[in-house]
Specification:
Strand content: under 5%
Distance between the termini: 11 Å
Mean pLDDT: 92
Helix content: over 70%
Largest sheet: none
Shape: elongated
Number of helices: 5
Structural class: mainly alpha
Length: 130
């Protein structure tokens, strides 16, 4: 199997991971909305919007990663590396503000998988693993 093929497969799995993470995050919407209603009035509408915004961002990144998996180009490695920054930054923010929770591990794994896809996606002409 070529590095390019391996990279495309890993990128496809990473895209599915972005979609799954967005869905999983979205399942917490009702709880967050209810919790925001018990806090300051200013947060009652802001927190649910931010919650959905994070899920939407993961979907958009999943679409970008899927496009790279479908049709890799010379800039695909950079695009994947940049896409990996979002879940890794989210994990970093979770660690800083709420500590380690199970979703932190999901975000770290997703970022790592996307970086692995970037690393495996060889340059055009790279034939096989060595």
């Amino acid at each position: 199997m070529t590095r390019r093929k391996t990279g495309r497969i890993l990128a496809g799995v990473a895209a599915a991971g972005f979609f799954a993470t967005a869905w999983l995050h979205g399942t917490g919407y009702d709880s967050v909305t209810q919790l925001a209603g018990t806090g300051p009035r200013e947060l009652e509408s802001l927190v649910p919007a931010l919650w959905l915004s994070f899920s939407f961002d993961l979907v958009v990144l999943g679409l970008i990663v899927a496009a790279v998996a479908w049709r890799p180009s010379t800039s695909s490695r950079a695009v994947l590396a940049i896409a990996a920054l979002a879940p890794l930054a989210g994990a970093g923010l979770q660690l800083r503000f709420i500590g380690f929770v199970p979703p932190t591990a999901i975000l770290i794994a997703l970022g790592g998988l996307t970086l692995a896809a970037a690393a495996a996606l060889g340059r055009k002409g790279t034939k096989t693993w060595r």
